[in-house]
Design goal:
The structure holds 2 protein chains of 2 kinds. By secondary structure, chain A is mostly helical. Chain A has 2 domains: 3-72; 103-143, no CATH class. Helices cover 64% and strands 4% of the residues of chain A. Chain A is built from 2 helices and 2 strands, in the order ααββ. Chain A has helices at 3-83, 86-95; strands at residues 128-130, 139-141. In chain B, helix 4 (87-101) crosses helix 5 (105-112), helix 12 (308-318) packs across helix 14 (361-371) and helix 12 runs antiparallel to helix 18 (472-485). Helices cover 35% and strands 23% of the residues of chain B. Chain B is an alpha+beta fold. In chain B, strands 2, 3, 6, 7, 11, 19 and 20 form a 7-stranded mixed beta sheet that branches. The longest helix of chain B is centred in the first third of the chain and has 33 residues, at 2-34. Chain B has 2 domains: 56-198 and 222-232, Penicillin-binding protein 2a (Domain 2), CATH 3.90.1310.10; 236-278 and 294-448 and 460-570, Beta-lactamase, CATH 3.40.710. Chain B is built from 20 helices and 25 strands. Chain B is elongated. The chains are: A mainly alpha, B alpha+beta.
Chain lengths: 143, 591
């Protein structure tokens, strides 16, 4: 075999060898990429699932807090009712010496006029306090 | 050689990585496919929990949504004796709970030491139920500080009556057992099916290691069904005013029982209804005999003279008498059908208005005879005597109205003056709505509406139809007569309210004791409505066996005034008459 033929044979062999190696490397790279992508997908699924679990946990914790607060509110509501009962109020009035008492009928001055007009009513020598449709303030009539 | 070695290294790494992945894939196959059932069952067993959820019992409110009965959150204190620790720890825990919760040391120690029963481990014992929420929170902190183990807190609620004995006889109470609430009386019993929550939901769910339910998985949390809320026609401030006066009456006259009923004559709504003696449903250790019963509903009484206007109104309506028709009151003693009938004073000739004003028994008896037995019987039936009132309470007394066939010659003279006929306070008040409502009697109602606590939907209980007993003209005439009762010359001048016209009637009924009418035991009553021409309410005050005085005008009428004055202020009912101004130097009216 002459040198040129041998060289071309060698080159052909080399090319073939290189092609074989290239294919092998390419396949390996593809396989690694696919595996990495699969791992990536799997990993992100696990990550988002974990996020979902964390959020669910937060929701449950908040629901628990709301439940506790609801009970506190119910407790406070009932405490408010207890503090609005007459014995409690009277007790506080006495305890603090407030000296409160209901108004006498003649001490009530109505800002919204009554439907009743007592002008001209017989007084028999008595003083009367009344409000009328046209009256703007309490009027005392002396006989 | 260099390149070959490089390629060999790449090959080796590739084989290594692929092998790892193949191993993982095979392992995954074994876990997910081969061992799936076994592992799934194991996990399910460990991380599945059962939750029993029951809704809360419905609440009871007054007309203006003031809470009368609610559920106060509380905590049940439990322990796992097998986690508490050794003898020393158990003793320490028992000493702590005995001092903090005021329970006997021996009792607590015995429970905490109960590690086995019939050979099985005990994991739950009760230390104390219904611990208030604030106390429970403090206890938690203290238990943590003292490092007491094995204690856990279970959330619960307790039925609570925030106003203590206010309206207690009407509201009733329940006994709570392990499973359910057992209603005993009152609204709690009558509306138990509405107030009760639905059956407990039992939910199976998957949880994480820390107990939090998992968002995925086979979880179905059904909403618990709450009991519905009941709104009464009672107005709490008016109820408080009434009960305050009842306490004063008990103190002053030392009676057997005292009660008051306030009703809106236009709708039949009961605005207030109180009695003494009563009880505190939050503290039943002090419950005395029959104090918990609603005697306004369960007991009857002979009404006495308060019956008179009801009969005279009908006589006016039928035209058998006029306000000016005269009757001879026989100077206070009248024999009829072989029996003596007396008046409290020796009256001579009186007209019908004066008969009412002065409460003449003889005059009323003669009017009734003119009216006639049959019409009288029919009238009593129309008023609802001898029948239940239609309110939801059980048991309810119907009173006694003798059947017409059993009426004798005396019946027509005695029943109209309130003797020989048994009525309940509710029947009397219902009958008086006819006088106050232009001749139309209203049936009573105590529940205004029901609210679904889940969706807020409200069911209103409608006002029942009025029943016309007599004409508006007759109603106006009888009201004019009843106004005279509270004016000078009447039997109830103490029921006069400055600024208002009061229409009312006193009643002093002898009690039937040992086969005869007693001269010692009386029921003193006053019933009226104010303002007379457009009443805001009808109010009955009745005192059973007052000591020291017996006349309705002396005992009950002042109580009526006290209650009515304050009620009129609360309801902002404007005065219809001039109000006298107090002269300076005169003693002021007390509280």
């Amino acid at each position: 075999m002459n040198l040129r033929a041998r060289k071309s044979t060698l080159r052909r062999d080399l090319r073939e060898k290189r092609r074989g190696k290239n294919t092998f490397i390419k396949l390996s790279i593809y396989l690694i990429v696919v595996l990495l992508l699969s791992f990536g997908v799997f990993g992100s699924t696990v990550y988002f699932d974990g996020q979902s679990q964390r959020m669910s946990k937060e929701i449950s914790i908040n629901e628990n807090e709301i439940y506790k607060l609801d009970r506190e509110i119910q407790n406070l509501k009932l405490s408010l009712e207890v503090k609005s009962k007459r014995e409690y109020i009277y007790g506080k009035i006495a305890q603090n010496n407030l000296g409160l008492r209901p108004a006498e009928p003649d001490q009530i001055v109505r800002l919204i006029p009554s439907d009743y007009d007592f002008k001209g009513a017989s007084t028999n020598g008595k003083k009367f306090a009344y409000s009328s449709k046209n009256a703007k303030s309490k009027i005392v009539v002396n006989d | 050689m260099g390149r070959k070695s490089f390629l060999l290294k790449i090959l080796a790494v590739t084989i290594f990585i692929v092998s790892i992945f193949i191993y993982l894939a095979v392992h995954l196959y074994f876990l997910q496919i081969e061992q799936h059932k076994e592992l799934y069952d194991k996990a399910k067993k460990k991380y599945t929990s059962v939750m029993k959820i029951k809704g809360a019992r419905g609440e009871i409110y007054d007309y203006n949504a003031n809470l009368l009965v609610g559920n106060i959150p509380c905590v049940d204190l439990r322990a796992d004796p097998n986690l508490v620790g050794n003898k020393e720890d158990t003793q320490k825990a028992a000493r702590f709970f005995a001092s903090r919760l005021k329970i006997p040391y021996d009792k607590v120690y015995e429970r905490l030491n109960r590690k086995f029963v019939n050979g099985k481990e005990v994991h739950e014992v009760v230390i104390k139920n219904e611990v208030p929420l604030e106390d429970a929170n403090t206890l938690k902190e203290e238990i943590k500080k003292k490092k007491i183990n094995g204690i856990f807190f279970s959330d619960g609620t307790k039925r609570y009556y925030p106003k203590d004995q206010l309206l207690s006889n009407v509201l009733g109470f329940i006994n709570a057992d392990e499973i359910d609430a057992v209603p005993v009386s009152g609204i709690e019993s009558a509306y138990n099916s509405i107030l009760s929550p639905g059956k407990a939901n039992i939910t199976v769910y998957e949880r994480a290691r820390d107990g939090i339910p998992l968002s995925y998985g086979n979880n179905r949390f059904e909403d618990k069904k709450q009991g519905d809320n009941v709104y009464l026609t009672i107005q709490e401030p008016l109820q408080a005013i009434v009960e305050e006066q009842l306490d004063i009456l008990m103190e002053k006259w030392k009676p057997k029982t005292v009660y008051a009923v306030m009703v809106d004559p236009k709708t039949g709504s009961i605005m207030a209804m109180g009695q003494r003696p009563s009880f505190n449903p939050n503290d039943r250790s002090s419950l005395n005999g029959s104090d918990w019963q609603n005697k306004i509903v369960t007991e009857g009484f002979e009404p006495g003279s308060i019956m008179k206007p009801l009969v005279v109104a009908k006589a006016l309506d039928l035209g058998v008498v006029r306000p000016g028709t005269m009757f001879d009151c026989e100077k206070g003693k009248w024999f009829f059908a072989g029996k003596l009938l007396r008046d409290s004073h020796p009256y001579g000739i009186l007209n019908v208005s004066s008969i009412i004003q002065k409460s003449s028994n003889i005059g009323t008896a003669k009017i009734s005879l003119v009216l006639g037995k049959k019409r009288l019987y029919d009238l009593f039936v129309q008023y609802g005597f001898g029948k239940e009132s239609g309110l939801p309470f059980e048991p309810e007394a119907t009173g006694i109205l003798r059947k017409y066939e059993r009426w004798d010659s005396l019946s027509a003279t005695r029943f109209p003056i309130g003797q020989g006929i048994l009525t309940t306070p509710l029947q009397i008040v219902s009958a008086y709505t006819a006088l106050a409502n232009n001749g139309q009697r209203m049936k009573l109602r105590i529940v205004d509406k029901i609210q679904n606590s889940d969706n807020g939907v409200i069911y209103n209980f409608p006002v029942k139809n009025a029943e016309r007993i007599f004409s508006e003209k007759a109603a106006n005439e009888i009201v004019e007569m009843m106004k005279l009762v509270t004016e000078e010359g009447g039997t109830a001048t103490k029921a006069n309210i400055p600024g208002y016209k009061v229409a009312g009637k006193t009643g002093t009924a002898q009690k039937w004791v040992n086969g005869e009418y007693s001269h010692t035991y009386f029921v003193a009553s006053f019933i009226g409505f104010v303002p007379a021409d457009d009443p805001a309410f009808v109010l009955l005050v009745s005192i059973d066996e007052p000591k020291g005085a017996s006349y309705g005008g002396v005992v009950s009428a002042p109580a009526f005034t006290q209650i009515a004055e304050r009620a009129l202020k609360y309801l902002d009912v404007h005065p219809t008459e001039p109000i006298p101004v107090k002269e300076e130097g005169k003693k002021e009216k007390g509280n």
